[in-house]
Amino acid sequence: MQDFRKLQIWQLSHELTLKLYKVVSSFPDSEKYNLTSQIKRSASSIPANIAEGCGRKTNGELEHFLYIAMGSASELEYHLLLSKDLGIIDTNLHSELENDIIILRKKMNVFIQRVSAKRK
């Protein structure tokens, strides 16, 4: 077990989630139960799964939850692309958010490799 708050990937994913909660607050009311909800859920799922993995007993379990977090990052990436294509967010904001996700995914991948190496 380790303190998830000390992990850079958790910190970055938490900051991204906070940023996205602000972004979706300006989404149209018609998207309240659709894209707004999906973006909030997929974004918050990333740090939540990192935290859950850190609370588990083995590195294998941690790795499993890190992969779930990666899946949530991919889901989030799609929802943001859809938001851009629907004209809900502009291209510049989409690029900024997509870049944040790409950086986070790269760092998560490095961390997964380290966790995986400890298991072998």
Explain what this protein looks like in three dimensions.
- With 120 residues, the protein is mostly helical.
- Helix content is 78%, strand content 0%.
- It contains four helices and no strands.
- Helix 1 runs antiparallel to helix 4.
- The chain is elongated, with a radius of gyration of 15 Å.
- The mean pLDDT is 95.
Taking the sheet with the most strands, its summary is: none
Order of helices and strands: HHHH
> How far from one another are the termini?
18 Å
Helices, by number, come to 4
> From the alpha-carbon coordinates, what is the Rg to the nearest angstrom?
15 Å
What structural class do you assign from the helix and strand content? mainly alpha
- Stretches with pLDDT under 50, minimum 5 residues: none
Question: Helix proportion of residues, in percent?
Answer: over 70%
Overall, the morphology is: elongated
Mean pLDDT: 95
Number of strands: 0
Strand composition percent: under 5%
Short description:
By secondary structure, this protein is mostly helical. It has helices spanning 8-24, 35-54, 59-85, 91-119. It starts with 7 loop residues before the first helix and ends with a helix.
Walk me through the topology.
Layout: H1 8-24, H2 35-54, H3 59-85, H4 91-119
Helix pairs in contact: 1-2, 1-4, 2-3, 3-4
